[in-house]
Amino acid sequence: MTEQQRFLEKLQEDGYGTPETKTYPPHADGEMHAHDQSVRLLILEGEFRLAQPSGTTVFGPGEVCELAAGSRHVEQTGADGARVVLGKK
C-alpha cells in the first residue's frame, strides 16, 4: 500500500469527505483566511507552507498538514508550487 493510499484510507476512517487533489502555483501567497471545516492535506509534490499568526510551518512531499476549522492561515508555496491531496470535515 502506498503512502497516498494509506492517507486516503485514514481520511475515510476519520470521517473526512471526498478527497480532492489541488495544485498550487509557484510562489503562491494568498490572503489570511479561515475555513469552516477541518482540513487534512498530504503533500504530494513541492513545498507547502502554512502561515498562521503563531508562525509558519513548512511541509514537503510525504508530510501531512492538519488545520482545525476556524484557524486563520495563509497557504503559501515555494518556487515549484505544490500539489496536495486533501479532505475536509
Q: What's the SSE blueprint?
A:
Layout (H helix, E strand, L loop, with lengths): L2 H11 L6 E5 L14 E14 L2 E5 L4 E4 L6 E15 L1
Antiparallel strand pairs: 1-5, 2-3, 2-4, 2-5
Characterization of the model:
There is one protein chain. Strands 1, 2, 3, 4 and 5 form a five-stranded antiparallel beta sheet that branches. The two termini are 24 Å apart. The chain is globular and about 30 Å long. The model has no long low-confidence stretch (mean pLDDT 97). The protein has one helix at 3-13, and strands at 20-24, 39-52, 55-59, 64-67, 74-88. It has a single domain, classed as Sandwich (Jelly Rolls), CATH 2.60.120. The protein is mainly beta. 12% of the residues lie in helices and 48% in strands. The chain contains one helix and five strands. A hairpin with a 2-residue loop joins strand 2 and strand 3 (55-59).
